[in-house]
């Protein structure tokens, strides 16, 4: 008989057992379930709700079950439905009626809410560590490339020259925000629901704060109905994971472009590339493409969870069993993609000459030429028009701005002097942009050192 089967005469259909069961995916929470049960049993004994000797025997046996599971000596039973009932069933098999006392003062509703919070807290900590590693690698790449000039784009059109360091550090800012979001999500996940019961708490004198302290929670939920029915923290984590994947995907898209024969800005290491079964010349950036592709599945889990929760009345409903598979897969996907991406960018070869040559093309110094005119007293709109006419002249004559003679400049405006050539050099274009947030080498070095301090303080 099932542990909840007292009011039932018949047994559930075998297909119902399979459909209803979640052990195939929630078994990964066995450690959290046992740790939560140990803390609950300890509290029950301390409060005199069950005899202390029973509490101690339950705790001892749960620790033995944990060791047996980790040794591979336990097979979970689908008929026991989920990890919570499997653990309790095993406990009762080993110590009889004493094991039946464990569930005093709690429900599976608050038990599962506890387990998933404990599990996701650990996963958030792991992902934060992976992000720290990625941020460190990117900051190191930037430090090696503060003088590596490359094109900056808007609308995928040549815009203004920047440095690879400046470009890379834009992603560092994104991943720093991702860590901040995870830390914020952790705060709301780190609230203990156990003691909420099924929805209306319990008449037993539980010490919820004691259990929260034993399990490392900062606080307890303040409303029992919310305690069992809240999955905001799951949705919030899925949102944070979606943003991480979006940032990885954007970067992967650029790496794929940079790795193409048309750009040749970077070359991927053989360890993170694959070949073609028919075209022997191919070296494909498949890891970057896979990460870009896997982003969609994480987005899907976020939308699925929002959809599951949107019409659920208080308090717990079985729909909420759908919270686990999606977030588990999203966590697994992010934890797989982050280290692969980190190693991929850490080993890619940067072709500095190709980046510089590309920056020389496309009139990326046009804005600087206009700014130079403004500094000579020409109104900006007039300066914009003058440089526009020069660009048109260059296109018609297959020249770049730095290839024009002074006479050609003066034919459009007699304001030009020899100083224009220094003003429009790529190095000047980059390094005179000393505004905080800009690409100048001096500021970028400051930012890199600032990031080093931030990384050192990351927990």
Top-tier CATH class of the largest domain: Mainly Alpha
- Low-confidence runs of at least 5 consecutive residues: none
Oligomer type = single chain
The Cα radius of gyration reads 31 Å
The chain-level structural class is mainly alpha
- H/E order of the elements? HHHHHHEEHEHEHHEHHEHHHHHHH
CATH superfamily of the largest domain: Fumarase/aspartase (Central domain)
State the end-to-end distance.
48 Å
CATH architecture of the largest domain: Up-down Bundle
- What's the mean pLDDT score? 94
Tell me the strand order in the biggest sheet: 1-2
Total number of distinct structural domains = 3
Number of strands: 6
Which of globular, elongated, flat, extended, rod-shaped describes the shape?
elongated
| Main beta-sheet strand count, sense and barrel state | 2 strands, antiparallel
**What fraction, in percent, of the residue positions are helical?**
55-70%
Would you give the CATH topology of the largest domain? Fumarase C, Chain A, domain 2
So how many helices? Answer: 19
Q: Strand content of the residues, in percent?
A: under 5%
Task: For this entry, give a set of tags.
mainly alpha, Fumarase C, Chain B, domain 1, Fumarase C, Chain A, domain 2, Ribonucleotide Reductase Protein R1, domain 1, two-stranded parallel ribbon, 19 helices
């Amino acid at each position: 008989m099932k542990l909840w089967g007292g009011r039932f005469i018949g047994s559930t259909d075998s297909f119902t057992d399979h459909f209803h069961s979640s052990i195939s995916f929630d078994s990964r929470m066995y450690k959290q379930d046992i740790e939560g049960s140990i803390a609950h049993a300890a509290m029950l004994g301390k409060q005199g709700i069950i005899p202390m000797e029973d509490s101690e025997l339950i705790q001892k046996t749960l620790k033995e079950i944990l060791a047996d599971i980790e040794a591979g000596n336990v097979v979970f039973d689908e008929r026991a439905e989920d990890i919570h009932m499997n653990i309790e069933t095993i406990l009762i098999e080993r110590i009889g009626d004493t094991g039946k006392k464990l569930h005093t003062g709690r429900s599976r509703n608050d038990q599962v809410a506890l387990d998933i919070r404990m599990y996701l807290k650990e996963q958030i900590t792991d992902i934060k560590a992976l992000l720290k590693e990625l941020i460190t690698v990117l900051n190191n790449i930037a430090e090696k490339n503060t003088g590596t000039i490359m094109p900056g784009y808007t609308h995928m059109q040549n815009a203004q020259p920047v440095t690879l360091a400046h470009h890379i550090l834009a992603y560092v800012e994104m991943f720093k925000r991702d860590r901040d979001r995870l830390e914020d999500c952790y705060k709301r996940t780190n609230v203990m629901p156990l003691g909420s019961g099924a929805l209306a708490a319990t008449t037993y004198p539980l010490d919820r704060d004691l259990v929260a302290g034993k399990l490392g929670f900062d606080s307890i939920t303040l409303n029992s109905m919310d305690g069992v029915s809240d999955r905001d923290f799951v949705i919030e984590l899925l949102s944070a994971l979606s943003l991480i994947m979006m940032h990885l995907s954007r970067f992967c898209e650029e790496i794929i472009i940079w790795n193409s024969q048309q750009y040749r800005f970077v070359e991927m290491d053989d360890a993170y590339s694959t070949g073609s079964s028919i075209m022997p010349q191919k070296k494909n950036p498949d890891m970057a493409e896979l990460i870009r592709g896997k982003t969609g599945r994480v987005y899907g889990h976020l939308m699925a969870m929002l959809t599951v929760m949107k019409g659920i009345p208080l308090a717990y409903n079985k729909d909420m069993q759908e919270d686990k598979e999606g977030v588990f897969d999203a966590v697994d996907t992010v934890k797989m993609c982050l280290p692969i991406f980190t190693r991929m960018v850490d080993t890619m070869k940067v072709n500095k000459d190709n980046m510089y040559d590309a920056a020389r093309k496309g009139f990326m110094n046009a804005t600087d030429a206009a700014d130079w005119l403004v500094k000579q007293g020409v109104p900006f709109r007039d300066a914009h028009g003058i440089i526009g006419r020069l660009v048109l002249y260059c296109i018609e004559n297959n020249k770049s701005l730095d290839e024009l003679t002074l006479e050609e400049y003066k034919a459009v405006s007699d304001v030009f002097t020899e100083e224009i050539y220094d003003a429009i050099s790529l190095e000047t274009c980059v390094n005179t942009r000393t505004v905080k947030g800009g690409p100048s080498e001096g500021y970028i070095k400051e930012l890199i050192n600032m990031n080093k301090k931030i990384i050192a303080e990351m927990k």
